[in-house]
Amino acid sequence: MVIKIVIKAILLATSAAALNASCSPGGNFDLSIWDLQLPIGSPGAVETISSNSLQGCSGWQDFDYFFTESSDGVLVMKVPGSVASSGCVTTPNSQHCRTELHEKGSWDPNDENNRLTVTLSVPLPDNSGHGTVIGQIHILDSISTKPVAELYYSSSGALAMGVERTREGGNSIFTPLGQIPVGQIFTYEIRYESNVLSVLVNGGAPIQLSTFDLDAPLSYFKCGNYNQGDSSSSVHFFQIAVAH
Residue 151 region, left (φ>0) first, then alpha (ψ -120 to 50), else beta? Predict the structure, then answer.
């Protein structure tokens, strides 16, 4: 049986009108399957907010990093920049700072249903070449410190997927996925199921991507604002859905 976990506004809609601007993000979104990694703490040991702390209308928020926008109720995730430009801190094995949801469990890419679907806008991408990572599949940490795939959004509005060729990482292949004007709302869906990796944009046809020599490692989803540059970045979320 397919178990579908939908993280969305409590009222069933994808528009900001369905969101309660008076609540913390946990009052508008079901954050029960996620922990939150922040760009603060100490190097290699970032502050992490548990799903229990995030949940509910009075759940955790911080207006510098992760909060409900008072004008429309969307979930905002911000990163101040890089270690050099802002003094932010990174997770182990990364040179970049993030405000990012981390799926608590792991799953098998050979299973029939593993999907992350997100409706968002990126009003402020970072200034790196490929841009801010707005969603990813990561290999289970006990297997590798590298991702399977990362979805990038650049300051020019270019959307691209980078896929690692091996579990050792450092040799991603990038596939352009089109242009989305900066600040425009759009939807993406990342699938890694039946050992096939694919991505859809705005309900279009799936674009199948090679996973090279990765050999279907146990994985988990991440979703948020993983800054790759020196400038600050901001990402707004309207809906997030995970299906297994």
Answer: beta
* Spatial separation of the C-alpha atoms in residues 11 and 160, rounded to whole Å: 31
This prediction's pTM: 0.93
For 1-58, the pLDDT digits (tens) are 444 444 443 333 345 558 999 999 999 999 999 999 999 999 889 999 999 999 999 9
Instruction: Report yes or no: 15 and 49 within 8 Å, Cβ to Cβ.
Output: no
pLDDT in tens, 95-146: 999 999 999 999 999 999 999 999 999 999 999 999 999 999 999 999 999 9
**Structural element, H or E, at residue 76:** strand 75-79
List all residues 6 or more positions away from 56 whose beta carbon is below 8 Å from its beta carbon: 24, 26, 27
Structure-derived torsion over alpha carbons of residues 36, 131, 65, 34, reported in degrees to the nearest 10: -20
Does residue 38 sit in helix, strand or coil?
A: strand
DSSP of 105-128, one letter per residue?
A: S-B-TTSS--EEEEEEEEEE--SS
Contact status, residue 60 vs residue 24, Cβ threshold 8 Å: yes
Assign 216 to helix, strand or coil.
Answer: coil
